[in-house]
């Protein structure tokens, strides 16, 4: 029953490697380098910008776009709304990573405004997904979700209702990351495990996963893109852990695995699929 999905995942990986899609980002300054390197390793082309007119131009030129609000700057008050407007106007698919939603006025007001821009993929940890659904007034969300910073404090399973309602609102996909990853398009739920606890010992595993979701989204649907990226990270993390002696060598081996893994190695990694009752 999951065969067509596995086939789509392989097609997406091959297409990205053949086509090198341009996938620009406005992302945080902590992990910007890892995001670009992960995007390049899977076969995409990266371009990081900050300024309003540059976000706008790349929203037109890019085949998909990644927005991560991890570190806020005053210029983002202009850059982010103008970029999102251009993404919507040009029907460029985009990924939102609502890092630390609820922290600060600018971050919160911008994230609230993105509800109308309907990001095609929303990727975050459980706490961020619950809090974003709360901010957007959707079911499963909570205004007082325990986002205390950039790390999750809630288990992924707790974010399932929020993930489903967000995916139904955007008509896209939501990927909740953690020890187990949950990917949904609002109608089906995929559960993928693997990875490594070393992912919690480096910064930007989640950010770069969002950037890689955006790369695959240039060539396939939001659900297949999010599932392909999440599965790739689960396979790559597991193999990198076997070669690593600590977080730094883990990051090095993990990037090598993103580059080396074959589509069939990724697509054959098992995942569980459930239909959501309507
Ligand atoms: N304990 C774990 N065991 C296995 N894999 C994990 C574990 N924790 C996270 N991962 C994997 O790490 C990747 C990033 O997910 P994570 O939930 O850490 O993102 P995040 O908290 O947004 O990270 P960051 O904000 O540092 O970028 C995903 O591929 C996820 O599957
Ligand atoms: C550590 C950190 N602080 C702001 S953004 C970021 C990267 C992980 O989300
Ligand atoms: Mg994060």
TrEMBL record:
Tell me which EC number(s) this protein carries: 2.7.1.50
Please provide, alphabetically and separated by semicolons, the GO molecular function terms listed in this UniProt record: ATP binding; hydroxyethylthiazole kinase activity; magnesium ion binding
Tell me which residues bind substrate: 48, 204
Describe which pathway this protein belongs to, using the record's wording: Cofactor biosynthesis; thiamine diphosphate biosynthesis; 4-methyl-5-(2-phosphoethyl)-thiazole from 5-(2-hydroxyethyl)-4-methylthiazole: step 1/1
> Where does this protein hold ATP?
123, 177
Enumerate the cofactors the protein uses: Mg(2+)
Q: Which reaction does it catalyse?
A: 5-(2-hydroxyethyl)-4-methylthiazole + ATP = 4-methyl-5-(2-phosphooxyethyl)-thiazole + ADP + H(+)
A single Pfam family it belongs to is HK
Task: Enumerate the SUPFAM superfamilies for this protein.
Answer: Ribokinase-like (SSF53613)
| GO biological process: one example | thiamine diphosphate biosynthetic process
Top-rank lineage group of the source organism: Bacteria
Keywords of the record: ATP-binding, Kinase, Magnesium, Metal-binding, Nucleotide-binding, Thiamine biosynthesis, Transferase
Top EC category:
transferase
Q: Which family does it belong to?
A: Belongs to the Thz kinase family.
Task: Report the protein's function.
Answer: Catalyzes the phosphorylation of the hydroxyl group of 4-methyl-5-beta-hydroxyethylthiazole (THZ).
Protein name per UniProt:
Hydroxyethylthiazole kinase
Organism, as annotated: Vagococcus humatus
